[in-house]
Each structure stands twice: as C-alpha cells, then as structure tokens.
Specification:
alpha+beta, three-stranded antiparallel beta sheet
Length: 620
C-alpha cells in the first residue's frame, strides 16, 4: 500500500478543524455561492409549484463589492524620514540616487498592478469574501513569466545573460488555505501554511518528472475524488476520467514554513512528493489573507451573505405563493348542472365543474378568490429591511432621479450608506498592503540582476532599471493611497461644471474640456466643431469690423471734403467783402472799421445787398 505523505495528513487535520465550525463551513460556502449565482432552489422538489427568484442576495453583494472598490487604490513606497529637495537645499548625489531607486520600484509595482490586473483580482476576492468570509492571493515565482531581457555578456560563454521569470498572483478560496495555528489569523506568525489546489494528473506528473522525481514515485500521482471540499457546487463536478492513468485531476498540496528566517517550500500529492523541500529565498509568507468580517480566535471570517440567505428564501417563498395563488384562483370557475348541460361543457382557463343538481339557470360563475393584501406589504418590508440593514437602500443602489438630486446630495447619501462597510474596507486596505509587501519580497530576493522598467515622465516614455538588492537595506515606508470615489466625484464634478457654465464663469468649450469621459458622445469631435464655429464667428466679426471702419473712413472723407468746400466758399465771400469795402469812400471805410468786429461783417453784408438792390433798380 502506498504511503500517505506527511502534508496530506496535515490537510486532513485542517479539514477536521473546518468541519467543526458552525455553521458548517463547507456547506455554508456552497449555499452562499449558489445564491450569488441566483440558484436559490437547489435541492428543492417543487412538485409543479412556482419557484420564483428575487435576487436580493446578488443585488446586495454587487452593491457592497462596488462600494468597496469605488475609490481607486494605489500603493506607494517612500524612504523613511526622507525629504524632497528644494531650490534652497537640493538633494545630494546619494539622496538623488536613492530617490530614483524608489521611483523605479513604484513604477515597477504600478506596471505589475496593471499587467496582472490586480483591480480585477480584488473584485473577485471581495466576491469570495462576501460568500465565504475569506479571500486570499497567493504569490509565486514563474520561471517562464515576463518578457525576456538581457543583461550584458557572460565572460565565460560570451553570450548575453538572459533574464527571465517573474512573480505571479493567483486567487485562492478560503477553503484552499489551511494555517498551522487556525486560532490566529496573522499569516506571518504561522508555524506552517498549506495551499491546496487541483490540477490535471498529466500536468503534475510532468512537473514531478522535471524535478527529477523517480518514475516509480510519480506514477503514484493518480486521479482522485478529493474535491468534496472545493468551494461551490460546480467545484465538485469534474470530467469523468478515462481509462488512461494520466486522465482526471488530483489534489496537490503546497506546504510553506519558516526555517532559519527563510521561507521553505514543498509540493506533494497524497502519495507523491513532486517538489522536495527547498528554500524560496523569501522573508515573508507569500500569502495575503483577508476576512470580510473578522471572527475572534479564528482565521476564518464571517460571510455577510450567510445572514441574507434565510431572508431571500422567505421572500422567494412568499412571492412563489402569491404566483401560485394567482394561478389557482385569479380566474373564476364555472359550475354547471351536468344533468341538464351534459358532460362535455368546457370553459377553458378556470375550468368548469360539473355537479348534479340545480345551479340557478344551469350555469353559474364563481367569483375569483381574494388574497390578503398584507402579504404584499410584508414582503415589501422584508425586501427593504434586508437591503437597508446591509447599506443597500434605493439611494445607495442608484434608484434615485438624478434630475431631482444634486451630485453633492447623492455623494453624501452614498458616504452615509457606506459607513457599515468601513470595517471590510480597512480589512481590504490591509490586505492590499500585505500583497504589495509580498511582491516587494520577491523583487528584493529574485531580481538579482538589473531589469528594465518602462515609465512615463511628463508624457514622455522612458526606460529605467531596477535591482532587487538596492532595497534590502533601504528603510522603506509603504502607504496605501485611496482616491475619491470615482462614481460620486464625477457626479459632483459634472454638477459643478454645469453651474459654472450657467453662471457665465466658463465658456462652453471649457465646460466640454473638463467634462469627465463617458458623459458626452464624441466629446473631442464636439470640441473641434465648437472651436471651428467660434473661429468662423470671430472671422465674420472681424470682417464686419473692418467694413465698418472702411465706411467710417468714407464718411470722414466726405465730411472733410464738405468742410473744405464750405471753407473755400467762406474765403471767397470774405474776399468779395474785402473788395467791396475797398470800393467804399474812405470815411465810410473808417466808420466800418471802428465798429465792433462782430458788426463789421453784418454791416458790409447789408451795404452789399443795398448796392445790389440799387443796381437792379437802375437797370430797370
């Protein structure tokens, strides 16, 4: 008989612990996972009765997960007690070099965050936490991961030094993690940790063969049925194994433990050790562990979904009873006297009932059955109470009229409803911090040669280098930055921008340029069109201004010419008056010149008129 491996024995001990928990650990996970998938009537024999589903469980889960991740999360390292340089006190050469190293570290982690899609992994983790109470990410080293890089030339071989491999992150169910001390949730203090999973027998054999396990040993890796503790109903359904010895799947166990300050690793199945004991070169257990609701003296948390299931069951049952009642009594039945009408009378929907005896006029319609309206009120109250007690009322779920509520009001309401999620939120932030510290551990101990790091600086793409050894003795601080909630800050931003436009503080183009993406279709195209229209209007206004200036110039020229003509006529008239004055007797001239200046012109004009009149009379 094949010998059972030591780690499989530890796995059975951990399973026994889980089976002692109340409510039953594995069964509770399966029920919650089924409700999350809207499978509410699993195992129920309805016997033809309606099985209605109101997905209250799913609605609350989606809301709470979205609320916890509505604010962007970023991790950033800095040097302890480090101050950035100023113009008055710039950084010296060593300080500048250290700052550059930390910048490269942050760029690398940001790049891995994006490439490994950590935001998506966190969403899946929180869904696990809602259904099981626990969530975990296991970080491991994959020699084939990443892009091949080269670092100089090997002096011995004359060939480029190849750099390959990188750390990876995988989500693990709470049921796939077992701690050596299950009464303590602190991962880094554990005597050992078991990480389980299931893989194809052929894959596990190939891995054992690659690690130089003897054929007689790795042939003990065979398909098994140790899947009853897998999370969810579908985790217990696998492909039927064929006659081939390499078909089917097998449970594998990874044991992690600390020895001499380092983390050691071993991988095995029930009857075969695939990877023998070896040092990982790490200082931390590469596992981030989180609880949705922490449970005292246990590493397993409490799933919030557990408290919602019985309420959702009652809601479904009531709604199904209403449907059943309506189906059976909504349409009035006909009673007829079969002795007079015969046996073949049929009135379809409600069905006719034949009796023997007088039924007033041979046929009579029965009234539809009445239902207690309190049923609807009670069912509505139960739905509302279940949602409200989980911070998922109508306002929080978005069931409000945006035209009747300001962005600020919505934001305040959302923040108030998120208060019950504060504890799970800070559990999540601690989880992210542990995850990033685990990744730093891999960088420090596995990035033994400088690696290239791409980053953006002022919109320009650049390439730097990162070397894990640079951070081993560097006093680093890790800060988890949480930005404002995107969904509510955008609403507030839009309302503020529109108010500024309404008050005339900004232009239409300025409003468009600051409008968050997604609110206006083809925003850039609209901005270009508006700018083109404004430019055309400016050109038209300039042309009109130039035309007005030309017209004004013409009028000024005309006025100038008219003034000149009037001046010339006046000068001619003065000349005539001077000539007339000279033709007068000397004594008359003297008298006129002695008159005030204003009377001289009038007197001369009067004498000129008299002279003209006298000339006309003499001619007659």
């Amino acid at each position: 008989m094949d010998k059972i491996q030591e780690d499989y024995g530890l796995y059975q001990i951990g399973m026994d612990y889980n089976n002692k928990l109340t409510p039953p650990y594995y069964k509770n996970i399966d029920v919650n996972e089924a409700f999350a998938a809207n499978d509410h009537w699993r195992g129920v024999k309805a016997n033809g009765q309606p099985t209605m589903i109101l997905p209250v469980y799913r609605r609350i889960m989606d809301h709470e997960v979205a609320m916890l991740l509505s604010s962007p999360i970023k991790a950033k390292f800095s040097i302890e007690n480090f101050e950035d340089g100023t113009k008055e006190k710039p950084l010296d050469e060593t300080q500048a070099a250290d700052k550059n190293k930390v910048d490269m570290l942050n760029y690398k982690l940001a790049d891995k965050w994006e490439k490994d899609k950590i935001d998506i992994l966190l969403r899946e983790c929180l869904q696990d936490g809602f259904n099981t109470g626990d969530y975990a990410i296991y970080t491991y080293w994959d020699e084939n991961k990443g892009t091949k890089q080269y670092n100089g030339i090997d002096p011995k071989t004359g060939k480029p030094v190849e750099i390959m491999g990188d750390f990876c992150n995988v989500i693990k169910d709470g049921a796939e993690i077992m701690l050596g001390n299950p009464n303590n949730r602190e991962i880094q203090t554990q005597p050992y940790i078991l990480v389980m999973g299931r893989d194809m027998v052929s894959v596990l054999k190939a891995k054992a063969k690659a690690n130089k396990v003897k054929e007689e040993d790795y042939m003990r890796i065979v398909g098994d049925q140790d899947y009853q503790e897998q999370s969810g109903d579908r985790g217990k359904i696998e492909l039927d194994a064929s006659d081939s010895v390499d078909s089917g799947k097998c449970l594998y166990i990874i044991k992690l433990w600390r020895k001499d300050g380092e983390i050691y690793y071993r991988m095995s199945t029930k009857y075969c050790t695939i990877i023998k004991e070896q040092a990982m070169g790490l200082k931390r257990y590469p596992l981030a562990w989180g609880n949705w609701i922490k449970r005292k003296n246990s590493y397993h948390g409490t799933a919030p979904g557990t408290a919602i299931v019985p309420n959702n069951v009652a809601i479904n049952q009531m709604y199904s009873n209403v449907v059943y009642h309506m189906r059976m009594t909504a349409f009035g039945k006909v009673i007829f006297d079969r002795t007079r009408i015969g046996e073949n009378y049929d009135n379809a929907i409600g069905g006719a009932i034949g009796v023997e005896g007088d039924v007033t006029g041979a046929v009579q319609q029965l009234q539809p059955g009445q239902m207690n309206n309190n049923m609807f009120g009670f069912m509505g109250d139960m739905i509302s109470s279940t949602k409200e007690l989980n911070g998922a009322n109508d306002a929080a779920l978005g069931d409000v009229d945006p035209t009747q509520a300001s962005g600020t009001a919505i934001q305040v309401t959302a923040q108030q409803n998120a208060i019950p999620l504060d504890n799970p939120k800070y559990n999540l932030y601690q989880f992210v911090e542990d995850l990033v510290l685990n990744q730093l551990d891999f960088i420090e101990n596995n990035y033994d040669l400088p690696r290239k790091v791409g980053y953006q600086e002022k919109g320009v793409g650049k390439v730097g280098e990162i070397n894990g050894a640079d951070y081993k003795d560097m006093p680093l601080n890790l800060k988890i930055d949480v930005g404002p909630s995107k969904m509510w800050s955008e609403v507030t931003s839009v309302n503020t921008i529109m108010q500024l436009l309404k008050d005339g503080k900004i232009s239409f183009v300025q409003m468009l340029e600051r409008m968050p993406d997604g609110y206006i279709t083809d925003k850039e195209g609209l901005i270009e069109e508006v700018k083109a229209q404004e430019q055309m209007m400016q050109q038209q206004a300039q042309m009109q201004q130039e035309q007005a200036m030309r017209q004004q110039g013409i009028q000024q020229n005309q006025q100038t010419m008219q003034g000149q003509q009037e001046q010339q006529a006046k000068e001619a008239e003065f000349e005539k008056m001077a000539q007339f004055l000279e033709s007068l007797p000397k004594d008359v001239q003297a008298q006129i010149q002695n008159l005030p200046e204003g009377q001289q012109e009038a007197t001369i004009m009067q004498l000129m008129k008299q002279s003209v009149n006298n000339s006309m009379k003499g001619g007659q």
